[in-house]
Each structure stands twice: as C-alpha cells, then as structure tokens.
Amino acid sequence: MDIVFSAATVNYAGRTALQPLDLRLTEQRIGVVGLNGSGKTTMARLINGLVKPTTGTVTVGGLDTVADEVAARGKTGFIFQNPQHQMILPILSEDIAFGLKNRGFGKVEIAEKTEAVLARFGISHLARRRVHELSGGETQLGAIASVLVTGPELLILDEPTNQLDLKNRTLIARTIAGLPEQVLVITHDLALIEGFDRVLVFHDGRLTADSAPAEAIRTYREIAAC
Predict the structure, then answer these.
(1) Are the C-beta atoms of residues 18 and 204 closer than 8 Å to each other?
(2) Longest Cα separation, the chain
(3) pLDDT averaged over every residue in the chain
(4) Does residue 226 surpass a pLDDT of 80?
(5) Structural domains of the chain, count
(6) pLDDT tens-place string over residues 133-173
(7) Which residues of 91-108 are buried (b: 16+ CB within 10 A; e: fewer)?
(8) What is the pLDDT of residue 198?
(9) Residue 207, C-beta contacts closer than 8 angstroms, at least 6 positions apart
(10) Beta strand 154-158 with 76-79: parallel, antiparallel or unpaired?
C-alpha cells in the first residue's frame, strides 16, 4: 500500500513539530528512528489521522487522511507505546471483540474472528485472562490481535519492545517479522529494524536520512553522539 506525504507539515502552538515532508512509502517493513522530539511519532500519527497536517496532505492507499478520514483510518492500525492503555474492556477476548462490534459484525462472525486471531498469535489460552494480568509480551500480542482482527492493511507500532525482557522482546520481534501486513515501527531498538526494507531517520522535525537499515542506523548513531 502506498503512503504519500505531500509537503506535509505539523505545527503545535507556534512550534513546528514536522517540517515540510515529501515522501512515498511502499515497502513491507519500514523502521523509523530519531531522538525524542525529533518528529518521528508525529509523522507516524499523520498516517492514521491521529494528527492532521497543518499544511500539505497525507494519503493512505489513495485516500486523503483528512477528506477521507474514516476510510483512510480503516486501512491502518496503531499500537501505542503502552498498549494496555488502549485496551478498553477487562477481558482479552472481549477487548478483541469490541472493535468488531463497532464495525457492525454479527455475533457468530465476531466469535469466529476472535477465536481465529487468538489462535493466529498463539494466545487462545489467554482469551479469558484479565488484561491487567498479562505479561508485557502477552499484552503486546493481545494489542496486535485486537488491532489486526479488524483487517487493516498497515500496522504502526510505537516502541513495541520497550521495557520487555529478552524473551518477550525476541517473541515480539519474531511476531513482527512474520506478519503479512505492511508494518511501520517507531523504535529505539536498533536491532529490531536491522532486517527491514527501509529506515527513516528524523531529527529536529526533519527527515535527515532515508536508506537501507545499516546506513540509516549509522546516521542515527552519529546524531545521537553529538
């Protein structure tokens, strides 16, 4: 799916969070890195309409994120840094079903889709577990299941391995690598994106590097060392 930024900018209270951005993304695995406040998360949130461009446009699969907001947002799923905060209902299976109910699916189809996505990610045994009782890795898998059950073409993850131990970090990295959906990952975990198709580096609200992982990571390390 094509994601196109055309002279897109974002201003907050007189501060420019994102300088004019012209960019076309088509790759299956896209990494985004940068120091805190660099504009990387603002860029990602433009894609699913959580942030609106101050000037310019962003299109997702040919749909404008402002003019075609609902349809464009349906093409993307977003998982925040703390995925537990976006889980609305207390039981995992109920939370997964919630998004389907909002889209008008019937009870039988909701049950089938919920069971299928739990099985897909190997977490059927967690179906009746309370979300606050899940481990960090289980929470991340539950959030991925809750988002992907509705069928978005693109999944955006913000720091998906943050605060995970090695075992769970490896689990989530393996899960991301195996997803058939297009994936964009914002991260400080450089090892996570080493095998990606393309990596973007943001600094001071600008896209400063756009290349294969090794070169982009090298640029980011130079920025971080300054």
Answers:
(1) no
(2) 57
(3) 95
(4) no
(5) 1
(6) 999 999 999 999 999 999 999 999 999 999 899 999 999 99
(7) ebbbbbbbbbeeeebeee
(8) 98
(9) 21, 23, 43, 200, 201
(10) parallel
CA distance 149 to 145: 6
Q: For residue 212, report the phi and psi dihedrals to the nearest 5 degrees.
A: -65, 160
Q: Are 28 and 182 in contact (CB under 8 A)?
A: yes
Q: What is the pLDDT of residue 163?
A: 87
Task: State the pairing for strand pair 76-79/63-64.
Answer: unpaired
84 has a pLDDT exceeding 90: no
Q: Which of 126, 128, 161, 121 is nearest to 145 (CA)?
A: 121
Can you tell me the distance from the alpha carbon of 192 to that of 25, in angstroms, rounded to the nearest whole number?
19
The CATH number linked to 116 is: 3.40.50.300
Phi, psi of 219 (to 5 degrees): -65, -45
d(CA 166, CA 13): 40
Any idea which of 21-25, 84-88, 107-111 has the lowest mean pLDDT? 84-88
**Given the DSSP bridges, would you call strands 63-64 and 15-25 parallel, antiparallel or unpaired?**
unpaired
Specify whether the CB–CB gap between 97 and 38 falls below 8 A.
no
What is the residue range of 9's domain? 3-225
In terms of DSSP bridges, do strands 206-211 and 55-60 run parallel, antiparallel, or are they unpaired? unpaired
Give CA separation, 24 vs 2, 5, 6, 9, 21, in Å. Answer: 7, 6, 9, 15, 10
3-class SS at 106?
coil
Strand partners, 194: none
d(CA 101, CA 146): 12
Residue 128: strand, helix, or coil: coil
